Amino acid sequence: MTTKLYVGNLSYNVRDHDLEQQFAEFGNVTSAKVMMERDSDRSKGFGFVEMSTEQEAQAAIQGLHDQPLNGRNMLVNVARPREESGGGYRSNNGGGGYRGGNNRY
């Protein structure tokens, strides 16, 4: 089973292939993805790497955490599962409504 790693504090010019090259030294990289801004081609400064085994992932953490990549020291640890967001429905009805007043026709 693959192990997903969080990689933070990335330089804004780091791309997927840069992560893949760095982590391949420690084992088989099944995926490497730098998270990008939705409206531009700019990195958000973090990404995720999946390693084939937990042992390879631990070796990558030991070998790469706090090590430089393009001038910034990477933060590398096991990725946490995404938290539930509550379904995306907001019950707070903050919209406008009928305000009354002088209605002239």
What does this 3D model show about the protein?
It holds the Pfam family RRM_1. GO terms for molecular function: RNA binding. The longest helix is centred in the middle third of the chain and has 11 residues, at about 55-65. Strand 2 (about 30-35) and strand 3 (about 45-50) form a beta hairpin. The model has no long low-confidence stretch (mean pLDDT about 90). The protein starts with a strand and ends in a 27-residue tail after the last strand. The strands form two sheets. A four-stranded antiparallel β-sheet has the order 2-3-1-6. Strands 4-5 form a two-stranded antiparallel sheet. About 20% of the residues lie in helices and about 30% in strands. The chain has a single domain, classed as RRM (RNA recognition motif) domain (Alpha-Beta Plaits). The chain is an alpha+beta fold. The protein contains two helices and six strands, in the order E-H-E-E-H-E-E-E.
